Amino acid sequence: MRRRARRSAHSNRDRWLVSYADFVTLLFAFFVVLYASSQVDKRKVGMLALAIQVAFQEMGVFQASTTAVPIDVAKPMPFSTAQAIENTERTASLGRIASPPDGLLGTGVENGDLAQLQAELETALAPEMKRGEIAMRREADGLVISLREAGFFESGSARMRASSQATFDRIAKILRQRAYRLRIEGHSDNAPIHNSQFPSNWELSTSRATEIVRLLIVRDGFSPDRLSAAGFAEYHPVASNRTSEGRGMNRRVDIVILGHVATEAPVAQARTRAQSPVTAPALTKTAQASSVAKPSPAVVSNGGGRLQQ
Fold it and tell me: Which carries the bigger pLDDT value, residue 74 or residue 200?
């Protein structure tokens, strides 16, 4: 039987070219994408950055700027440049508002005078400070004299103790000799209070502050435009409320001696009045008891807490 001769299969040796061509095409596309991503359209990026900034400011995420930055839709400035212009103009505006007017003491003179005032007060109030009835410290705003509840107020009351009047008059006599502005701040601990006179520590801390203002005006002859009052309740503690000693330190009225004199410019005076929930001119002997100052959310940003019952 004759064997059939097998037909030799024809092998295609060029099939690899198809895979190679696909690989080269993908490699080319990859490098085109890399090149395209490296060529950023700075004009469009600037427009996008400014649009995002405006959108976030309208949503309240970023602090809105009062500076109008010129925007050229065809060719807007880069976002970094626009932000730098806004910051510069905002700083300049704040400088025009907050700069001390002519005639005010310089920073170095103020610091030196406050240091001298602190030394004089510490000498005059040495017995009370030793008993822990008064504390004194320096803060960014100025010199702070803390009148603690244990030495100046009955528990749960806004009236100053009669036994503390002489000490208070010594403080007022020293402060009256200088024309510094004074901010009176009422503070408390975090234990709640509710009685017939004070529904919460907001009312109690504010009433104590306004009582000090009233005494400064009526008893010691202070000019009302030098004074302001605020109630902060428990939200500005100076010690931990976990111990009775700490709570006693937090129940206090702070006399903050601000580092500028009373002849401030009208703009700064308006700003100071706007920041004070209770202003001293509204206080009289007859009105103080009936008009307990309510803390304003726009002014008193912190508060709460109890002055011990």
Answer: 200
